[in-house]
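Hi W.,

Here's what went into the run:
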Amino acid sequence: MDKLANRLREDADKIEVSVSEELDHRIAASLQGITPEAAAGKPRERARPLGFWWASSLTGIAAAIAVIVIINRQQVEEPPVAVPANIVAAVPVFDLKAESAALTGPLQQELENLQADIRKAEKKVKEDIGL
Amino acid sequence: MKAAQAGSVDAFADLVRSYRERLLRFLLTRCASYADAEDALQDTLINAYRYIQSYDARWRFSTWLYRIAINNAAKIRSPDVVELGELRDEESDPLLQCINDSDTENLWLSARRILNDDVFAAMWLRYAEDMSVNDISRALDRSASWTKVNLLRGRRALDAGMNGGRNESEAYG
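Here's what came out:
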């Protein structure tokens, strides 16, 4: 070992310390109240078996399905909600008949024209075949 | 070790008995008072016992203990103290009080003045505790290359201090 290393070792030995009885007792008393903690890497023991987890999950799913089915079967048509009079009064009244006539008028005329054309065509065919 | 890991306080006490003085001596170099060093030792042993099941047998037990000790000393040291060299006046210096009278200044006192905290610890673990570079790097949570480089720097700084050829105020590390 070289000179510096020797000197460092010797000088370290010159530092005199001792653990006093009082400190010894303090440490011993502190250690008595401590429980070593489980290593972080170790898996924790399961509180319940794995089957319990599956059983509880399946029970939960079955209960949810049952609730959904019951709700759908018991579902009744809700009565129409009465509309307050002030809202009815506020709604404008449209002339639905007039609107209907306005929309169907052209179609009616077209139908009559077609029927007239059919009658003309029947008449012409009858004349052609000599009836 | 197995008995201590199983929760036997007596087994743990036997296991650490031979390390207590060495740890206290090391902690004395890092704490502001003797009482602080004792508190740090107590905390170190308590933490070591509490987490003994986490001890990895690939490490030397002493390396693991020193790592805990370094952390505890850092917690106990006053927050306004940054470097070891700034710690205290000479009269209250616990390290100075524990050093035998000698014609020459104890080199660890010089080391504490010249080196920074981590380099001082690396030097101590290497030369006072005979630890390998790998163990020192584990204890200090540093890389092996950092440890090698700073051991060399520490040696050079101390050599210069011993020979008076360098200005001691030049801090290394």
